[in-house]
Design goal:
With 679 residues, the chain is α/β, with parallel strands linked by helices. It has helices spanning 13-16, 24-32, 69-72, 79-85, 90-93, 137-165, 194-208, 230-239, 264-289, 297-300, 307-320, 325-329, 334-343, 361-370, 379-400, 407-415, 420-430, 446-459, 495-518, 531-545, 551-570, 573-584, 588-599, 609-621, 639-647, 670-676; strands at 19-22, 37-41, 46-50, 56-60, 99-103, 168-176, 185-188, 220-223, 243-251, 255-256, 261-262, 465-469, 476-479, 484-488. The strands form 3 sheets. It has a 9-stranded mixed sheet with strand order 1-2-3-5-4-6-9-7-8, with helices on both faces. The protein has a 3-stranded mixed sheet with strand order 12-14-13, covered by helices on one side. Strands 10-11 form a two-stranded antiparallel sheet.
Length: 679
């Protein structure tokens, strides 16, 4: 686990999500003690969240909409008008960060962006009265005391951060309608010390321009922002020499300004983008102005998994742990249907039967979508669980349609189908001439194989069992629940196959099984989006890296791609069987097994992913370390978040038992040439 550079005060997970009700003085006392807490402060005027002490404070001064009853009664504006004037959703946009300071009171009561003497407004920007009667002295005193409390707490917080980290950054966020702001983002640098911090604002600008929003062209600018948080910046620079303030205004692109309708997808992507841009800028600032020259964006974020994530993950795992595709997709009458097929000289279409689904699919989907994903504050992790829940819902559609005409369409939705590149790669490999003396004789029976795999597991430190089985179609398979590598009792292995299967089944599938069980997030055991493509790709890559990948093995994977394509175009079991057997000169049993793999369930497209996964993992291994994919049953689409989770200390960093990066022989072998030609 990486050593955290900043987070030397660890949160208590049992207390972090408990909202305390504190006075200003009690809040400051906890800050001075270095405590982590969530609190509503000064009669609910603002909320302070400290999950961990980090050199970054994120503030939203104008997102609050609370107005005391006595003031609401004399306001000339309706609740809807007051809401429209606020910086809606800015508090939510900052939820990913470990320290947030969020104003809950409406800025109409007291404006935190203004000095105390001008904080209470009497008229709006059009010189229209905001109140039907003049405030009493007592009313003014109550509101101005809240203004004081906010800045006293901020001052204590920044003093603590400068004491701990020498430098700190305050990022404040507000939103503005399009009529006031033309750019998607605008950074206020009117009070920035250009001599010291100009490169910080420029770096932030570049990060903002990297944000992608659905159907929106993002553009950013620096300059003076009208209605900006100018007093916040003034206050900070008046008291702190080593803290930089970056006020940002975002255009209200996440909502319909006419009716306040929220664009949820835009808001979600904006949360993710701001998390990246702000944390990267804060890390850049610390690298340049502190002694921590190797600060990463992950060091700015929390290093402990939030309680709400742990709780949701447990509920999700309890709901889904027994939902496995292969448990239901493999025919229960395979042997008898095989006999009928060959008895009628391949003129018979097998009538496969399947294990009954032992869950209520409607109830399952309802429970899935009732999981409290919205309680997760981190933008990327929230999106991760949302996507995974959608993925599981699609999987249930697949399982409920097994044996029906709808199954093939759900299979296409879940797994996809081979594209032209996949077909071209398969055809290329199938046309390759045989390589002489590449494989030795099949001289090791199942008992010898068990002894061999047990020894390799011991050498690699894998706590698992290796047993023979009479129920396997494949030569070997890992049982994830029981941590057992099963060996087909009737099969024979060559020396190359033993080494290849050791790397494939033990080195990848067993390793990811055992690693998943160690993770604090049990979702890693459930099979993330694209896990077949990724895990099988890694397993075949491991065969190649061990020097045991053969042309015959690659051609088997290629035939699976062709079989999927034939199934989709022919839609006739016997015709596909005959085509495969005649073209590839297969035995009856091999042709039947290959055809069954793609016709089971009603049309199963999964098999093309093995060759595609190998190609993609091979290409990716040239660009980055793949070991993070070994944390569990992962998919390549989540690799960026998985790396972040490991760097933040959420997940133990996995170690590969062998290199997952290929170094070709010199001169390249025939296999190196063939593999390099797969595109």
């Amino acid at each position: 686990m990486p050593k955290k550079r900043y987070h030397n005060v660890k949160p208590n997970l049992d207390k972090r999500s408990l909202m305390l009700i504190l006075s200003e003085q009690d809040c400051i006392k906890l800050i001075n003690q270095g405590q982590c807490f969530h609190a509503s402060v000064a009669d609910g005027a603002f909320t302070l969240k400290i999950d961990e002490y980090s050199p970054l404070v994120c503030a939203a001064l104008a997102s609050g909409q609370t107005l005391r009853d006595e003031l609401s009664a004399i306001s000339t504006l309706s609740q809807d008008e007051r809401t429209a004037l606020s910086s809606q959703y800015c508090d939510e946009l900052l939820s990913s960060f470990p320290i947030t300071l969020i104003a809950n009171d409406s800025s109409l009561e007291y404006d935190l962006s203004q000095v105390k003497a001008h904080a209470i407004k009497v008229v709006d920007s059009s010189n229209q009265a905001l109140w039907t009667k003049t405030w009493s002295s007592k009313q003014r005193a109550i509101s101005l005391q809240k203004h004081d409390s906010f800045y006293l707490v901020l001052k204590a917080l920044l003093a603590k951060l400068e004491q701990k980290f020498k430098h700190a950054m305050v990022f404040s966020l507000q939103s503005a309608p399009s009529e006031q702001q033309q750019n998607t983002f605008a950074i206020d640098i009117s009070q920035l010390d250009q001599a010291r911090f100009k490169n910080i604002s420029q770096h932030f600008l570049r990060q903002l321009n990297l944000i992608n929003l659905p159907n929106i062209e993002v553009n950013s600018a620096v300059g003076l922002i009208k209605h900006s948080h100018n007093y916040l910046t003034t206050h900070i620079y008046a008291h702190f020499d080593n803290t930089v303030a970056l006020p940002l205004c975002v255009q209200k692109v996440f909502m319909n300004e006419a009716n306040s309708e929220l664009y949820h997808l835009v808001l979600d992507e904006l949360k993710v983008g701001l998390k990246q841009a702000v944390s990267e800028t804060a890390a850049f600032f610390m690298r340049r102005f502190s002694h921590s020259r190797k600060t990463r964006r992950e060091d700015i974020l929390s290093s402990a998994i939030a309680k709400e994530v742990i709780e949701l993950d447990k509920k999700l795992y309890a709901l889904c742990k027994n939902v496995g595709t292969l448990n239901f997709i493999n025919p229960v009458n395979l042997a008898s249907e095989r006999k009928k097929f060959f008895a009628q000289k391949t003129a018979y279409t097998p009538q496969f039967k399947y294990k009954q689904l032992n869950i209520n699919p409607h109830q399952f989907r309802e429970q899935l979508y009732k999981l409290p994903v919205e309680e997760i504050l981190d933008a990327d992790i929230q999106q991760f669980y949302r996507r995974f829940i959608d993925h599981l819902a699609t999987k249930i559609e697949l399982l409920t349609s097994i044996g029906s005409d709808e199954f093939i369409y759900n299979s296409l939705k879940y797994y996809g189908e081979p594209d032209n590149n996949d077909i071209a790669n398969a055809e290329f490999l199938l046309r390759a001439p045989a390589i002489a003396n590449q494989e030795g004789p099949l001289e090791h029976d199942a008992d010898a194989a068990v002894d061999y795999f047990q020894q390799r597991a011991k050498e690699w430190g894998l706590v698992c069992k290796v047993e023979k089985s009479a129920k396997l179609v494949a030569k070997a398979m890992v049982n994830n629940e029981k941590h057992i590598l099963y060996i087909n009792k009737d099969t024979l292995f060559s020396d190359q196959e033993l080494n290849a299967f050791a790397h494939h089944e033990l080195g990848i599938h067993m390793v990811t099984t055992l690693n998943a069980k160690k993770q604090p997030l049990k979702v890693m055991s459930l099979g993330l989006i694209g896990d077949t493509h990724t895990q099988e790709g890694l397993a075949i890559l491991s065969e190649y890296s061990s020097g045991s990948l053969t042309l015959r093995r690659l051609q088997t994977l290629a035939m699976r791609v062709i079989a999927v394509k034939l199934m989709l175009t022919q839609r006739d079991f016997s015709q596909t069987f005959n085509t495969l057997q005649q073209r590839f000169i297969l035995t009856d049993n091999d042709a039947f097994t290959l055809t069954t793999r793609v016709y089971r369930g009603g049309g199963f497209t999964k098999d093309y992913l093995y060759l595609k996964g190998f190609r993609d993992m091979l290409n990716l291994s040239d660009e980055q370390d793949l070991s993070v994919l070994l944390v569990g049953k992962t998919g390549i689409s989540d690799i960026t978040l998985l790396n972040e989770m490991v760097e933040r200390g959420f997940l133990p960093k996995p170690e590969s038992l062998f290199p997952l990066k290929i170094v070709q022989s010199n001169p390249p072998s025939i296999m190196d040439y063939l593999v390099s030609a797969i595109y």
